[in-house]
Fold:
Amino acid sequence: YANAESFYVTGKEVIEKIKGKENAEYALSCNNLGWLYRLLGKYDKAEPLLTDARTIREKVLGKENADYATSCNRLAVLYLEVGMYDVAKPLYMEALQIRERVLGKEHIDYAASCNNLAILYVVTGKPAEAEPLYLEAKRIQEKVLGREHPFYAASCNNLGALYLDMGLYRKAEPLY
Structure:
């Protein structure tokens, strides 16, 4: 990751110098650098970059765009990780709704949004709201990726953990 940071910073600076800040390429560079900082736990550096990416994408691409939805989702992930659940939820909801309209309910990114919103519901103590989202993510991943894919396995694990926490051991066991 240490090597990646210098490349992302340089790329962002070059794009800004050549094309300015009001374009999709600059937004992507902000998004990538912000995501790297999030992975490194540098949330104070990640938030403004992810926010800029979302703002630029909204202005340049519009809200009915998969890249804009990705920006919403990534910002929500950051807010979830720092415990800002009330800020994360509307961003997760927006990403989910856009992905449903733009990509459809059979797309893997829609499944990822279902999964992410379900995680928020689990963390905030709302398992009944998480269950249908986990089930939907699992269904899509099985259909699109197959039962041998790691994302499908992760969905089974997430749903199994939910059932385990709910004391529904017979439902959890086959998923595990």
User: Anything to note?
Assistant: The CA atoms of residues 127 and 165 lie 9 Å apart. The chain has a mean pLDDT of 96. The chain is about 80% helix and 0% strand.
